[in-house]
Amino acid sequence: MTAVSRFVISLLFIAAGVNHFVSPDMYLKIMPAYLPWPLFSVYVSGFFEMAGGIGVAVPKLRRAAGWGLIALLVAVFPANVEMVLHADRFPEIPFWALVARLPLQGVLIAWVWWAAVKRVGATDE
Question: What cellular component GO annotations does this protein have (predicted)?
Fold first, then answer.
């Protein structure tokens, strides 16, 4: 089950990271106005999502990548708050879904920790 979770996490973060470069406008809409260099920030977060996704798939990099993804998930949380505070920018997304993203971030953090950071027995599978 852990191997499947790692595979899914890798795919999700790599795909999300690629999407930052393919569709940056979507991410620019959720960037809080107080953050400088919005487009650069979108690209940097996309790069680190891809790097983390790849790292989770590589046993020697897995724990570091997991910690990096957890840090990234914490760092991008203000964008989720921004979506709730400015729901009018996202008429295609139901308000309940925007609100649901807030606790979902905690679930993602726990999932990454369980699949990539937590040591399994004496070895790291």
Answer: membrane
